[in-house]
Amino acid sequence: MTQYTARLTGAVPFNLQETFECGQCFRWLPGDDGSYTGVVGRNVITLRTDGDDLLVAGLDQAEAEQRLIPYLALDEDYAAIQEQFRRNTQLAQAVDYARGIRVLRQDRWEALCSFIISQNNNIKRIRGIVETLCNTWGEPLPGGRSSFPGPEVLASLTEEDLQPLRSGFRAKYILDAARKTASGEVDLDHVASLPTEEAAAELCRIRGVGIKVAHCALLYGFHRIECLPVDVWMKRVMSTMYPQGLPEELLPYAGIAQQYLFHYSRSHPELFEA
DNA sequence: CGCCAGGTATGAT
DNA sequence: ATCATACATGGC
Predict the structure, then answer these.
(1) Which of A25, A60, A157, A189 has the fewest CB atoms found within 10 Å of its own CB?
(2) DSSP assignment, residue A51?
(3) Looking at strand B, which nucleotides approach a protein CB closer than 7 A?
(4) Into which CATH architecture does domain A6-75 fall?
(5) What's the pTM?
(6) Where are the alpha helices (DSSP H) in A98-170?
(7) Model confidence over A90-138: pLDDT tens digits?
(8) Which of A74, A107, A82 is nearest to A6 (CA)?
(9) Superfamily of domain A108-221
(10) From the CA of A159, how many Å to the C1' of C4?
(11) Is the CB of A262 under 7 A from strand B?
């Protein structure tokens, strides 16, 4: 029986399933009662909806507010963002399909590393590889979960060491990212201070990080909500819905628009045929 | 079995 | 600059 120890009030709009299963994160698992359990830093956290509130297990009230309000983007004005999005007919459909999506503020390194693994891969297998990565090199946490291993831990490994991960050609990319990040050759704090375009260029110095992975890392790990990752699904969306590109007034929130569109297109593949 | 997956690096036009 | 292809592995 889960003991909920904190409550976040007024989490609207917010939906756990839509937020955790829309493809932005890979480590939140559904319970049998509508709850979700995941790892934030060194904490195993369970969340459950109670009306307009979120019940939190794994943190006390002060920690929950301090850590989860930013993590869950509860400080972002989604009412205003959605109101803007609804003025666009195409986007309105996607928003109405999953009104409870929020783009999370994840850990920078975790987002970068996870989306390196994501390239030319399917989400089911990404989840498996990330979980194995954590269980093998992260620190054990309650409930059989593990922390996401820091770059300094992975930096000392070899491709051979990573073989059990079954990450294929991405292994060398993971190691290059770990080494450059751990050494400060690519300094994520510095990246965070750069203008978006320069930040992306800096991340692209890592082997296996191209513009799409860089934009994912920036959007999900640095909360640069103007970043628009374009993968195979978004290519279909853009060509069928926005052949002229996203309307200019949406560009400041392109990353969030992308999240609704990405989720909608994956759920309605027939609408976006080649 | 064959095609595809939240792409990128590399080498050829 | 733009375009094709290889890349590891496994889901479906």
Answers:
(1) A189
(2) T
(3) 4-9
(4) 2-Layer Sandwich (3.30)
(5) 0.98
(6) 108-117, 123-137, 151-155, 159-162
(7) 999 999 999 999 999 999 999 999 999 999 999 999 999 999 999 999 9
(8) A74
(9) Hypothetical protein; domain 2 (1.10.340.30)
(10) 28
(11) yes
Q: Could you state, in order of their start, the residue ranges of all structural domains in chain A?
A: 6-75, 108-221
The neighbour count for residue A14, using CB atoms within 10 Å, is: 22
One-character DSSP codes across A236-250: HHHHHH-TT-S-GGG
- Residue A272 CB neighbours (<10 A): 19
* Angle separating helix axes A89-97 and A254-267, nearest 10 degrees: 70
Contact between residue A100 and residue A18 where contact means Cβ atoms under 8 Å apart: yes
C1' of B10 to CA of A183 (Å): 27
Structure tokens at A165: 């991960």
Please give the angle made by the CA atoms of A169, A128 and A143, to the nearest 5 degrees.
140
Nearest to A12 by CA among A67, A71, A73, A57: A73
For the record, the structure tokens of A123 come out as 């989400």
Distance between CA A159 and CA A156 in Å, rounded? 10
